[in-house]
Amino acid sequence: YPVPAGEGAKSLSVAEGLYTFLIEHGYTRGDLLLALGGGIVGDVTGFAAATYLRGIEFIQVPTTLLAIVDSSVGGKTGVNLKAGKNLAGAFWQPSLVLFEFLDTLSYDIKLDGIAEAIKAGIIAEPLILDSIKMKRTLDDPDFLMNLASLAIEVKRKVVEEDERDNGSRQLLNLGHTLAHAIEKCSRYKISHGHAVAMGMKIVAIASDRLGWTVENCSEDILEILERFKFPLRCPYSAWELANAAMQDKKIRGGNITLVVPARIGKCRLKTISVNKLEQFISYGL
To answer: What are residue 60's phi and psi, to 5 degrees?
Structure first.
């Protein structure tokens, strides 16, 4: 069952089309789905698997570096609504994740995955950042495999502690509140990994300027991101980003929980009023 390319395919209508396909082909609870593709294919397939007949098994076969290090692992599935990203979804673990690196991936597609790997390093594993600092190209498959292994291990530990995203798993959202806002403002022309890089830059600079970090780390984070020529200039204002973030899943009772770096290798959760989000973003811009 082919899933169209692009973020627009991550929708309830595409999921409904898949349900119809499964019904017409007599799929039962004894059958399983296999998601072959990038993160959008994996998210839609996982969402369908979690909800069809109240749940059938599925296998992830990610074909992009971003999906390998992030969306295929951890059991988050979902689709977008008009109001924002991933607002309908379920926690549903795959039975197996199987991948190998493809030589056909473009540099930009690799960068999307590198951004999530850098995020894992900032959160919990400085060895990832040390490894990245020694590289100037992304052509070494052994380097990418090692990088993916380290990033997946970070995510595995965090997810095992908090599968349902009620506490420490929220640390994996470093840069993501702003990334989702950037994606939404761009009508998804800015890819997820590139938006995460912009989001991490904004959060790191704002946290340093507000004195929320134990050790200033924005310079180190910027150096790593600039090494691979990430486009880091955000084209949207603090007001636009704050407004776009108003549908974020991390908003509860008028407050929003941000992930801020304390130092390289350790982040913490910081809850602020949504009324202060625009000011926070302005410090980072």
So the answer is: -100, 125
